[in-house]
Amino acid sequence: MIRVLLADDEPLIRAGVRAVLSVDPELEVVAEASDGHEAITRTLEHRPDVVLLDIRMPRMDGLETVAELRRVAPGTAVVMLTTFSEDAYIARALADGADGFLLKTGDPKELLAGIHAVAEGGVCLAPSVARRVVGELAGERLSRGAAARERVEKLTPREREVLALLGEGLSNAEIARRLHLVEGTVKMHVSSILVRLEASNRVRAAITAHEAGLV
Fold first, then answer.
1. Segments forming the whole domain that contains residue 178
2. Taking every annotated instance into account, which residue ranges of this chain make up the domain HTH luxR-type (predicted)?
């Protein structure tokens, strides 16, 4: 069972998202929050596997909240679920440690698949967001490639293999199957990769994999 916390200041939105999640028997909404402070408190109380976080909330917005959640609950996956897809929001959310960025206007199936993906150690991006991220990578790869390759050189050969697959968007379970490893070993490799690359999360590590030409 994947335990989910919903954080949005609009009760109707929370009710709608809860209704979407209710069709999946593997998902359970364990708590709700109406602002960032409450989201952090409820996360510490309920220890959900995934937090769905709106960007614009009172008192403490979603962008501030994701950074704090990464500090106090690093084992909890965070997905931004918002109507706002401006590049500045996307860049900051991913830089601060969000594991995914989905739009409220998207297909409900994308939301369900995204929650499963991040709960398994993967990432999820709305198609329109993914296109922007890839476009940014294409535009800046040449200027940032040398620095990325230098960072990747610090990794062991096995860690580079894991990073390449991480860059393809594979979850820990999928990487384990591809490399014939147990999932726990993959988790250790991913943790080491994040430390060595000084990456805040899997998304930033995946970007480094693309910049370094591993993908």
1. 141-211
2. 148-213
Identify whether residues 116 and 169 lie together within a single domain: no
Residue 127 has what pLDDT? 74
Domain-ending residue, one of 125, 149, 184: 125
Are 116 and 164 found together in one domain?
Answer: no
Q: Per-residue pLDDT tens for 64-100?
A: 999 899 889 988 999 998 887 666 677 778 777 888 8
Query: Tens of pLDDT along 140-167?
Result: 554 567 778 888 888 999 999 999 998 8
Same domain, 33 and 102: yes
Q: Are residues 77 and 20 in the same domain?
A: yes
Are 208 and 200 in contact by the 8 Å Cβ rule? The answer is no
Which of 125, 154, 169 is the last residue before a domain boundary?
Answer: 125
pTM recorded for the entire structure: 0.69
Q: How many domains does the chain have?
A: 2
% of the chain surpassing 70 pLDDT = 90
> Residue 147: which CATH number?
1.10.10.10
